[in-house]
Design goal:
By secondary structure, this protein is mainly alpha-helical. Helices cover 76% and strands 0% of the residues.
Length: 237
């Protein structure tokens, strides 16, 4: 057998041995991100107490998620093909969507918001199990750290308050830098840059105050962290 024939034989053997994925890695992540966009809208709107809008966004998320479940149950993207907990994730999110739908229908938007927060955790766990880190994962990591900052009463900590503020500011600055260094896939959208800049400025204000040892300025900047993050998350997170 000549060299050309050998190469053809190897290529044919590889094509038989390797599975033909119905959905590629990138296509799978694009599907997940599209569904997550509708989810973010439902999460954001529920926090604003907008019942009708939340219901519409949740219905859109439910539809997108149902398509993922239907397709991936038969033939998941390669990155999730060996994930033995994939079906469990589907079941978990389906249950959360159903529960949130009932809560929204009953007008209990605060509880629906808390229920929807669990979807974020389920999707983050899906990525973590499969060694995937995307824009939303970095946003979620920042959110977890920011939540701790917002819940901290630095003034009540007395002499330890400034040291705590400086430590937490350093964490936020690191996580924010990761977000800004790896922009959202939709970063070409004209809305992205202003939102990212507002987010960056809020983190910088908190970090600058902490480095200056200015507790009062730090507490003022602390209260300014949530809104810029929420705007970026709602649109692109």
């Amino acid at each position: 057998m000549n060299t050309g024939a050998k190469m053809l034989a190897v290529a044919l053997a590889m094509s038989v041995a390797m599975p033909a994925w119905a959905v590629t890695f990138r296509e799978g992540e694009a599907q997940l991100r599209q569904a997550y966009g509708a989810y973010r809208a439902a999460l954001f709107l529920s926090n604003q107490g907008k019942q009708a809008e939340t219901a519409a966004a949740l219905e859109k998320f439910d539809g997108a998620w149902s398509q993922i479940v239907a397709g991936w149950t038969i033939d998941p993207p390669p990155q999730y093909a060996e994930d033995t907990a994939l079906a469990e994730t589907f079941t978990t999110v389906n249950g959360l969507i159903a529960a949130a739908g009932q809560q929204v229908g009953a007008g209990d938007l605060p509880t629906a918001h808390l229920t929807l927060e669990e979807v974020r955790e389920a999707v983050a766990a899906l990525h973590m199990r499969n060694d995937i880190v995307g824009f939303s994962d970095r946003m979620n990591a920042y959110h977890a750290a920011m939540k701790e900052v917002l819940e901290t009463d630095f003034l009540a900590l007395g002499d330890a308050g400034m040291a705590r503020m400086q430590a937490e500011a350093a964490v936020l600055e690191h996580l924010a830098a990761e977000i800004l260094a790896h922009p959202a896939p939709e970063a070409a959208d004209p809305a992205y840059a202003p939102l990212a800049e507002g987010f960056a400025a809020s983190v910088k204000a908190f970090g600058d105050a902490a480095r200056a040892g200015d507790l009062a300025a730090g507490i003022a900047a602390q209260s300014g962290l949530k809104v810029p993050y929420s705007k970026l998350f709602a649109k692109f997170g």
